[in-house]
Amino acid sequence: MSYLKHFHLTEQPFRLTPDPDFLYWSKQHARAKAYMESTIWLADGFVVITGEIGSGKTTLLQSFLGELGDDVVYAVVSQTQLTPTEFLQAVLTEFGFKPFNKRKVELLDMLNMFLIEQYSNGKKVVLIVDEAQNLSKKVLEEVRMISGIETHKEKVLRIILAGQPELKETLDSPNLKQLVQRVRLRFHIGPLDRREMREYIERRLAVAGRVDADLFSDDSFDVIYRFSGGVPRLINTLCDTALLCAFADEKQRVEAVDVIAAAQELSWKEHESNTGIYDQLRQLEMERSPDADTHVTRIEVRTDDETIAELTFPLGRVIVGRSPDNEIYIKSKFVSRHHAQLISDENGCVIEDLNSTNGVFLGEKQVKKYRLRDGDRISLGVHELIYHDLRQASSREQHDEADDTDAADSAVNET
């Protein structure tokens, strides 16, 4: 690219082709990857990752695949406009078979035997389906069926479905209730916020060889956000075009006027996230989201007999770990990046070890998955988590109030 030398770059910073080297770890991307990693250690159920076009799903998948160990065998199916039989053929082809001219029952038998064999050899098998929004309901039902293949101990196929937001709508169909019950985790990658967008741009420039973080002027970032809405692919296209515009005018840096010129070159209008429609949707989501009064779990974090944090959570999933993207962030060398997860449901709270290095302990006993009781103390390295069920506390308070009322009534009657 002719502008590389001019702007002191060694490679093109805003290519549209996925490249894990340029991946920016926003909080959302880190969370999505943690959920994908959990499929390796927690064999039951599968993960669904959705995101807008250009949100970085494919790059995230490539980063995830690049870090898998030798004990993991995986297949990636990206062509998803298939019949159920064609889908099974595509999966087996990715696993190294030549499954053509075979009946569906033969294909299922081949897959079943392959999975059992890999399990016997100590291998974990992962199936990743990209562009999963194009899967028909019949194929999704096939996915549910093969996700149930198991030994006498556990399921033997881990599944990750990645796709555009339409996949969420498809999964919410009444006809797919059984499939959704098998889904362990669902996560949606939204656009970057303004701060993340700036960090994203500056990271890509640094990876591409730029030493100084001054190539884009401060006022240019506001314009980039206005036209890109924080969507990574749109950011790339707009920034690349803005660099060309600035280069054509022999400028040493990109300013707001260059970004506006780039948007005009691309015939772009202001992104829909800045028109007010998205603000209305966000307001509705905030109105529907649980407030503090509906929180059901309180976690007290202690170390050296001192409480360092008290956090409350509604129903749902909470990740505990050393990485700052976790809801419960514990900065300690004894705590893994994503150490454990807490799942609060109607019956209480379950803690699960996410294959941490130092384990999860209840007293002296190491636990992999355990339903907590009010007051339980869980040890993570030198830190301790104390679980409190707020529903039980509320019930006790109501009971105590009722006793006080009865006592008061009794006192009145006696007088």
Strand order, biggest sheet? Answer: 7-6-16-15-12-13
Count, helices: 14
Radius of gyration: 26 Å
N-to-C span = 95 Å
Shape: globular
Give me the secondary-structure category: alpha/beta
User: Mean pLDDT across all residues, rounded?
Assistant: 84
Number of strands: 16
Helix content percent band = 40-55%
Tell me the major beta sheet. 6 strands, antiparallel
Helices and strands, in N-to-C order? HHEHEHHEHEHHEHHHHHEEEEEEEEEEEH
**Strand-residue proportion:** 15-25%
List segments where confidence is low: pLDDT < 50 over at least 5 consecutive residues.
Answer: 275-282, 284-293
How would you briefly describe this protein structure?
This protein has 415 residues and is an alpha/beta fold.
Task: Report what the structure shows.
With 415 residues, the chain is α/β, with parallel strands linked by helices. Helices cover 41% and strands 20% of the residues. It is built from 14 helices and 16 strands. The protein has helices at residues 3-6, 27-41, 57-66, 84-94, 104-120, 137-147, 166-171, 177-182, 194-207, 218-228, 232-248, 256-265, 277-288, 390-414; strands spanning 46-51, 72-77, 124-129, 157-163, 183-189, 297-303, 306-313, 316-321, 328-329, 340-345, 348-353, 361-362, 365-366, 369-371, 377-380, 383-389. Strand 12 and strand 13 (365-366) form a beta hairpin. Helix 2 (27-41) crosses helix 3 (57-66) and helix 10 crosses helix 11.
